[in-house]
């Protein structure tokens, strides 16, 4: 019988979700805020349409679900290289390329795709790093 949710290292999953949240704060903050806002057609000084707690709560819940699902795919105790490799490929080949399809049809810019796709590639690579190290 294969691993189940009991076999998952939930502290590592939580740490992975937190890492995505912290990465997003840096990535969409000081690194790429102005470029992302310009490419997305958003005024960086405009008041948010939703309450920040709703936005951040939704983002964290999504990161937690993604980290948990990735942990299930990796199975317990993955070798670090395999976890990193799987994280990088998941972020780049599945997430970023899916964004690429949507962005192509929506007529969004290459720069916006590089920012968003780059974030998710690093997000899942971090997941692999944390889940590969923390057994």
TrEMBL record:
- Per UniProt, which keywords does this protein have? Membrane, Transmembrane, Transmembrane helix
State the InterPro entries in the record: DUF1761
Ranges annotated as spanning the membrane: 12-32, 53-74, 80-105, 112-134
Is Iron-sulfur included in the keywords of this UniProt record?
Answer: no
Q: Does the keyword Signal apply?
A: no
Q: What is this protein called?
A: DUF1761 domain-containing protein
Species in which this protein is naturally found = Thermomonas aquatica
